[in-house]
Write a structure and sequence with these properties.
The protein is of the alpha+beta class. The chain has helices at residues 20-28, 54-68, 79-87, 109-116, 147-154, 163-173, and strands at residues 2-8, 33-37, 43-48, 74-78, 97-102, 123-128, 131-136, 159-162. It has a four-stranded antiparallel beta sheet with strand order 2-3-1-4. It has a four-stranded antiparallel beta sheet with strand order 6-7-5-8.
Length: 175
């Protein structure tokens, strides 16, 4: 069995409150083993024999929507992929906040160009593989970054995590 991390969208934001013990039970109900949650923001670590592909993500999404009553975008990564994300250095300068956006598939060159066009004086972006890196010079809540417009540009969903969360996941699970 392999260990994976599911990054879930819409967990404990926007009025969608889910207790972590309930989330663990939902994953265990899908026959995943060694299920853990990591901070209360929709990060679930689990083991399965299944491949970390779109089919696995869809299985989780379908189960969570049936149980919770709303769509939960799901982005699964292996521990090796999480470690690579945590080690990647997309920017030469530092910012106040570095976030990582998890997407389903690598973006085409034209979409990457659109994403790069969202750059402002305080927001800078970088795309690598199935991740989008967002360097923000101010608090992200104060940024004018248009999240909905961003999803429209990429033609799909994205879920964001602070790089500190990704680093902590790497430290805890990639030993």
């Amino acid at each position: 069995m392999s260990k994976y991390v599911a990054f879930l969208k819409a967990i404990n934001v926007g009025g969608h409150v889910v207790k972590m013990d309930e989330l663990r039970e939902l994953f265990a109900g899908m026959k995943f083993s060694n299920v853990e949650t990591f901070i209360a923001s929709g990060n679930v670590i689990f083991e399965t024999k299944s491949a970390p592909d779109r089919k696995l993500e869809q299985k989780i999404e379908k189960h969570l929507e049936a149980a919770l009553g709303y769509a939960v975008g799901t982005f699964v990564r292996s521990l090796e992929e999480i470690r690579a994300v945590s080690e990647y250095q997309p920017f030469s300068r530092k910012g106040l906040v570095l976030n990582v956006g998890f997407i389903r598939d690598a973006l085409s060159a034209g979409v990457v160009e659109q994403v790069m066009g969202f750059k402002t004086d305080v927001d800078e972006f970088h795309v690598y593989g199935r991740e989008v890196y967002w360097l923000c010079q101010i608090r992200t809540s104060d940024s004018k970054f248009p999240a909905k417009k961003f999803e429209k540009a990429i033609g799909g969903e994205i879920t964001w995590r602070n790089m500190n969360t990704v680093m902590r996941l790497t430290d805890k699970y990639s030993r």
